[in-house]
Write a structure and sequence with these properties.
Layout (H helix, E strand, L loop, with lengths): L13 H21 L7 H6 L2 E4 L7 H4 L8 E7 L8 E3 L1 E5 L2 E2 L5 E7 L10 H7 L1 E4 L12 E7 L1 H6 L12 E7 L4 H14 L8 E7 L5 H7 L2 E7 L2 E7 L7 H6 L5 E5 L6 E2 L7 H4 L4 E2 L7 E5 H8 L20 E4 L10 E7 L9 E10 L19 H7 L11 E9 L8 E4 L3 E7 L8
Bound molecules: 2-acetamido-2-deoxy-beta-D-glucopyranose.
Length: 446
């Protein structure tokens, strides 16, 4: 009888193979975390000296909170530094003639041509015949998925690093980010890196770009090669600063824009004047203006009115609940007694609580907001619903003599100021609304 052959030496049994794998994993995991296969993000770099203000998306106060009974109250404040992109929810904000501070200071635009231009047309000629036109989620719904963070200098962090360059208040930045995976192995590494560094299976690799909040100085305009150019917004044209050089080329592919793409910064010295339903210069004490807002400086929305419309919409898989963020308001209110009470307001005062040292803010309620199809775009994923809420708005909210067969929801506001020499005030979540004047609204078309 032969004895069983001795086991050969280098072979591993199952348990030691398992141990080996675990050891390798445990050894490499910290390496992957500390030296991830992705370049350091601009967000991480900014966080060394700056802090983001406000918050985003899912935890939106106005979406999750229940509306309360009581006097009309400010429930949420939102700014949209880049038109048509994601907004930022803030606790308080400065009110300036052109609306909430930092609201709609940038817009994307595409170069439109009135006639085809040949390959051999000299560049000069072709750009002269072309015209920049602003773009919105109606044409490019993926704009809704562009995340915008506002970073302001953090004095505490700055104090901790005495050797670093001093940070000043004008050093605020917008960080724009969008999901983007590069082709090939590098893309795969970044994909894995995003999940490891952000500790989430759902994390996606992103592309980032940085924009200054302050309007660039003449020197910067020259060195960075920005240009002052006309850009059409609805039926108006504003002369603004073309800062297309800051755009990563991937953005155009991501959004699906086939024309040339640019980003424009509104020039604070050349804001657009507002007439139509806005108070006149005599009434307001200054000439009402806007930045890249659609038509008026601010937009107010009543949360309960959104819920009322929501109850009337035919729901489906793609639209389960009408998210108030679809309407891109600046001031979201609730409370009040009579249905759609906000539509009877002509002038309001937003009153701070007794503990506040602030003066509050005053607004001329200029007209109703006539809706286009943009609320059909889902603010979370950019999906454009084929019908709703456009259909229900036209059906149930055709309420303005000046805008027949159109749906209206929300009100357009123009700020009023106590001291005409200091055109600024403050507004804060939780403040209550006192109605100073009531009346009827008739929309005036552009
Ligand atoms: C908001 O809308 C609801 C329902 O239409 C209404 O009862 C309430 O008075 C309104 N509140 C304000 C502040 O306009």
């Amino acid at each position: 009888m032969e004895s069983p052959a001795p086991r050969s030496g280098p072979m591993l049994d199952a348990s030691s193979a398992f141990l080996l794998v675990v050891t390798i994993f445990v050894f490499f995991l910290p390496l992957l975390i500390y030296f991830p296969p992705v370049p350091p993000s601009q967000r991480d770099a900014l966080l060394e000296t700056h802090a983001p203000i406000g918050r985003h998306g899912p935890r939106h106060e106005a979406r999750d909170g229940r509306s309360v009974k009581g006097p009309p109250t400010v429930r949420s404040l939102c700014i949209y530094p880049i038109k048509s992109c994601k907004g930022i929810e803030v606790r308080q904000s400065k009110v300036l003639p052109a609306g909430l501070e930092f609201d709609r200071i940038y817009t994307f635009a595409q170069l439109k041509s009135p006639f085809p231009v040949g390959v051999h047309t000299p560049d000069d000629d072709s750009t002269r015949a072309h015209k920049w036109e602003f773009i919105t989620q109606r044409q490019f719904p993926l704009l809704a998925t562009l995340q915008v963070d506002l970073f302001v200098p953090d004095t505490i962090k700055a104090r901790g690093r005495p050797s670093g360059p001093p940070v000043s208040d004008s050093d605020a930045f917008l960080l724009v980010s969008f999901p983007w995976q590069e082709p090939g192995l590098r893309g795969v590494l970044r994909w894995a890196g995003a999940k490891i560094t952000r500790w989430s299976w759902r994390a996606q690799p992103e592309k980032e770009m940085l924009l200054p909040v302050a309007f660039p100085s003449d020197g910067e305009i020259e060195t960075r090669g920005y240009a002052r150019e006309p850009v059409a917004i609805w039926k108006e044209t504003a002369t603004a600063l073309n800062m297309a050089r800051e755009l990563p080329p991937e953005l155009q592919l991501y959004l699906g824009v086939s024309n040339r793409l640019a980003i424009f910064r509104i020039d604070p010295a050349r804001l657009r004047r507002v007439y139509r339903c806005a108070p006149t210069m005599d009434e307001a004490g200054y000439q009402p203006v806007t930045g890249f807002q659609d038509a008026y400086p601010l937009h107010l929305l009543n949360l309960t009115s959104v819920r009322d419309l929501d109850a009337k919409i035919d729901k489906d898989e793609a639209l389960r609940v009408l998210d108030p963020r679809r309407f891109r308001a600046n001031i979201i209110v609730d409370g009040g007694e009579t249905p759609y009470e906000e539509e009877s307001w002509k002038k309001i005062r937003v009153v701070p609580g007794p503990a506040s040292t602030r003066q509050g803010s005053e607004f001329h309620v200029s007209c109703r907001t006539v809706r286009c199809k943009m609320p059909n775009v889902d603010p979370d994923n950019g999906y454009r619903h084929p019908r709703e809420p456009d259909k229900s708005l036209r059906e149930f909210r055709d309420v303005d003599e000046g805008a027949k067969r159109m749906g209206c929801l929300g009100m357009q506001l123009t700020p009023l100021f106590d001291e005409p020499e200091k055109l600024e005030s403050w507004i804060e979540v939780g403040e209550t609304i006192e109605v100073l004047e009531r009346g009827n609204h008739v929309y005036i078309k552009q």
